[in-house]
Amino acid sequence: MLTDHELNAIRYYIGDTEGTDGFWGDEKAYVLMNALFFSGIRSETDRAREGKYLNTEILADPKRLYEVLTALMSACRKCALPAERETYRVERMSDFAEMQHKGKTVSFTSTSTDGFLSAYADRRGIALLHFILPEGTPCIPMAEVLPHYAKADEAEVLLPPGLPLHIREYPVPECCLAITDADGKPPVCFAKISVEPTFPEVTHHALPREETVLITRLCTALMLRETPSAEDIGRYIAWKQEFQQALGV
Questions:
Q1: Cα(92)–Cα(126) distance, integer angstroms
Q2: Quick one: CA dihedral 238, 244, 248, 249, positive or negative?
Q3: Which residues have C-beta within 8 Å of that of residue 4, sequence separation ≥ 6?
Q4: What percent of the chain stands above pLDDT 90?
Q5: What is the CB neighbour count within 10 angstroms for residue 226?
Q6: CA 34 to CA 5: how far, in whole Å?
Q7: DSSP bridge partners of 223
Q8: Helix 230-247 and helix 212-223: axis angle, to 10°?
Q9: pLDDT, tens digit (0-9, with 9 covering 90-100), for 76-104
Q10: Distance in angstroms (rounded) separating the CA atoms of residues 127 and 111
């Protein structure tokens, strides 16, 4: 059902990579790839403060990145769920806040049918998200789609950006208070999220031009815990917005 291009995009996203190419060899390309969907530079800043590497090669060729992301979106449509399923995610509070504000999944969102992981030592401030995915929800159930999936124990279901959400917050269940963040603190909130199984087609708009020097300078500053210049921040945000428009998210 899936094309080789779509399968390769899925493998790339989950880190099933090889070789030393700056783009195709990155096992954690999703770090900066997903930050691209969020507003401003908060997401990039959070990830850099967590010690994550912001590989600027990911954004150096907008056309190549666009092809990978649209292949992932196409795969999500093809793998829509045949029946309702429930999944779980431990999320950064800052990312959850943007999800609430926009009323949709902001980036590609990794969830699990196997419950919440017990600790997230790289994140400060976490939210527990319980997703209800109805029949027809566009997504990628990794173990069911990939013929060889090394992380089958994670029971991952990948949601695409742009899925409409209905979010209701509840007190954190007592049994979940043992899940802690980087500071050893329990979750800030717990939310049940009903997903609408609608997903717009990608309508192509012009891609932004390559801005490798700008992006490298900004991401390097963030990884060094420095503040980029206001001009660099403004130019980078404008570049991101053009790319988001090209994807229709």
A1: 5
A2: negative
A3: none
A4: 77
A5: 11
A6: 20
A7: none
A8: 120
A9: 999 999 999 999 999 999 999 999 999 99
A10: 13
Beta strands in the chain (DSSP E): 85-92, 109-112, 126-133, 140-141, 156-159, 165-170, 189-195
Q: Are 189 and 127 in contact (CB under 8 A)?
A: yes
* Interatomic CA distance for residues 228 and 248, integer angstroms: 28
Report the C-alpha gap between 62 and 241 in whole angstroms: 13
Question: How would you class 96 by CB atoms within 10 Å of its CB: exposed for 0-12, middle for 13-18, buried for 19 or more?
Answer: buried
Asked if 50 and 82 touch (Cβ cutoff 8 Å), the reply is no
Q: DSSP letter string over 180-207?
A: B-TTSPPPSEEEEEEEP---PPP---PP
pLDDT higher at 21 or 110: 110
pLDDT at residue 22, rounded to an integer: 85
Tokens 């196409």 — which residue? 74
Tokens of 218: 């900004």
Is residue 64 within 8 A of residue 47, CB to CB? The reply is no
**For residue range 29-78, what is the model confidence (pLDDT) as tens digits?**
999 999 999 999 999 999 999 999 999 999 999 999 999 999 999 999 99
